[in-house]
DNA sequence: TCTTATATCTTTGTATACAATAAATCAACA
DNA sequence: TGTTGATTTATTGTATACAAAGATATAAGA
């Protein structure tokens, strides 16, 4: 894995906690590299908003509840649009991929509820894959480019640990509604279902905001 | 001006033409700097999509009509939303700034049509300032963060050279409608007017696409 | 002449050294 | 003791050197 992803993962997985100060030299020593490649990774993370510049060094960004609201508003807007566009432009190949992602998500949930709690990671991945497939089907390269740059809030990844079986099933239901709307080329239904689905995720994060922040993974 | 903005301006102003290959060494010599700061600027421009990686070096991105359509779709979505949010959340101070930007845009157009054609630059600036003021009033820091990163298409800057007086007046009319909708907190009117306004800009760019591409500024 | 292997040249990626600057420490003085 | 100025230290910004990887040119053999 490259330097950028190494540092990014350390932030997302809570190894580098919010507010923690990072310097080029420290990171370089930790990763046994020179400052040059570290600088490049830091610059990228800065431009993505995951770390904020300090007078000296940088610090891991500490997101507030208001940040979560704003970021989810944005995500709702962009992904709602991409679902609508996917309903409009999807090919048979797109449908195959979306359906496959849907099934894998269902499998992951089934395995999880059968007491294999390690499968939560798989659930996160398969959920992402479903959303990815829809963004691809929307045939707007630039929306894709943008959503991929929407600020990643570390705690969102951890929020899945607080999903009950019931909530996971409801999440799956939404995937189904979205999938069917895209099949039927019902743009507005796709958009609205995607909106509700993303707001469901937002509510989950906001509800457990404080536990998520202190959680060390 | 820093390295990033120097290179960016050279691309926007057509000094580095679409498809042109740039290498770190060349740029370093041209700007009398070492490769290190050049690399940082290039990385940023790459992540913004203004230049694309080559096997060796990078090349200035050549945008297609389809790119223009997709980017404007995105801009419509984001700025339409920000106009609606501005209508909802604007303070008196926001209104003052938006109104002031509106007036300056009107002044710039007036000066321009009185045969001072050099004022086209001012028109571009004042138009941007109006949009900025609305984004600020929308009170979503993250939308702001994003719109500022929406891919800048070089030729959009030049498209103003093809605006007739009538089209400029129509653009101003839209600003007025948007301003009033925000004053009256009419979210949907603000959103729709912003949509139409941005599509007007898109049509202008698409209409003159070929002239704009060969134009050297 | 055409193909393939070798050498050469270009260009990027990484390490390191040094310069510039801001922060922290310490000392001198009121 | 508290305040100011000088000194040291920490950290970033820039330059340069060298290693690694690709591309291009060259030469040898079929």
TrEMBL record, chains A, B:
SMART domains: FCD, HTH_GNTR. Residues 1-63 form the HTH gntR-type domain. Keywords: DNA-binding, Transcription, Transcription regulation. The keyword Transcription applies. Pfam families: FCD, GntR. GO terms for molecular function: DNA binding; DNA-binding transcription factor activity. This is GntR family transcriptional regulator. It comes from Jeotgalibacillus proteolyticus.
